[in-house]
């Protein structure tokens, strides 16, 4: 015979309401967004200019790095294609009899 289940196992599990899907514009919590806007709004004109300039330069550095990686990928693919073509022409071709 099986022993009876303990009382805590007989209770139904609590259910949670389904969470709605976040909109793409809600990637950051409102509190964080509000704190950033408040912080930026409290800066002096020179401070705002400095933040915008720094963010722009950082964005350009990231973009430049991504383009460098893409360029490297294309170069490696080209060298690989040339090496494979050379192998097929010089080493894998059957000699004529």
What does the secondary structure layout of this molecule look like, with pairings?
Elements: H1 7-10, H2 30-41, H3 45-90
Structure report:
With 97 residues, this protein is mostly helical. The chain has 3 helices and no strands. The protein has helices at 7-10, 30-41, 45-90. The chain is flat, with a radius of gyration of 31 Å. The model has no long low-confidence stretch (mean pLDDT 83).
Keywords for this entry:
3 helices, 64% helix, 97 residues, flat, mainly alpha
In short:
This protein is an all-alpha fold. Helices cover 64% and strands 0% of the residues.
Helix/strand class:
mainly alpha
- Shape annotation: flat
Please report which band the strand proportion falls in: under 5%, 5-15%, 15-25%, 25-35%, 35-45% or over 45%.
under 5%
Characterize the largest beta sheet: strand count, sense, and whether it forms a barrel: none
Mean pLDDT: 83
Distance between the termini: 86 Å
| Total E-strand runs | 0
In quaternary terms, these chains amount to single chain
